[in-house]
Design a protein that fits this description.
The protein is an all-alpha fold and 121 residues long. The protein has 7 helices and no strands. Helix 3 (24-32) packs parallel to helix 6.
Length: 121
C-alpha cells in the first residue's frame, strides 16, 4: 500500500503531470463539465422548462465533440468522458421533453407544422 501511495505521489509531482495541468487538454474539459452537471441537476425540475431545440442542439454538439476528443492526438479522455456524460444527460432530458409533450408523433407533427408556418410568412 505504501509503495502504491508513494508511486501515485511521485507521478502527481512529475513535470509531465504539472505540464498536463497547465494545458488546454485539462482546463478545456474541466470548464466544460458545467454543461452535463447542469443537465443532471435539471433532472428534478419540471419538464415544461425544457427546450427541445436546445436539448437537440446540445445532443448533436456532444456527439460531434466525443468524436473530436477520440480522434485528436493525443486522445483527450477527459473531454470524451465529459461529452459522453453530457450526451446521456441530454438524451434523458430529450426523453423527458418528448414524454411531457405527448409523445414523439405529436412533437414531430408540431415541429413540421411550425416549419410550414414559418415558410408561409
Amino acid at each position: 500500500m505504501a509503495s502504491w501511495a508513494s508511486n501515485l505521489l511521485q507521478r502527481l509531482g512529475s513535470k509531465e503531470f504539472r505540464s498536463y495541468l497547465m494545458s488546454t487538454h485539462f482546463w478545456g474539459p474541466a470548464a466544460n463539465w458545467g454543461i452535463p452537471l447542469s443537465a443532471i441537476a435539471d433532472f428534478s425540475s419540471s419538464p415544461e422548462k425544457i427546450s427541445g431545440k436546445m436539448t437537440s442542439a446540445l445532443t448533436m454538439y456532444s456527439l460531434l465533440f466525443m468524436r473530436f476528443a477520440w480522434m485528436v492526438n493525443p486522445r483527450n479522455y477527459l473531454l470524451f468522458a465529459c461529452h459522453a456524460t453530457n450526451e446521456v444527460a441530454q438524451l434523458v432530458q430529450l426523453y423527458r421533453f418528448v414524454d411531457y409533450n405527448g409523445g414523439i408523433a405529436k412533437v414531430l407533427k408540431e415541429g413540421a407544422q411550425g416549419i410550414k408556418d414559418s415558410k408561409s410568412k
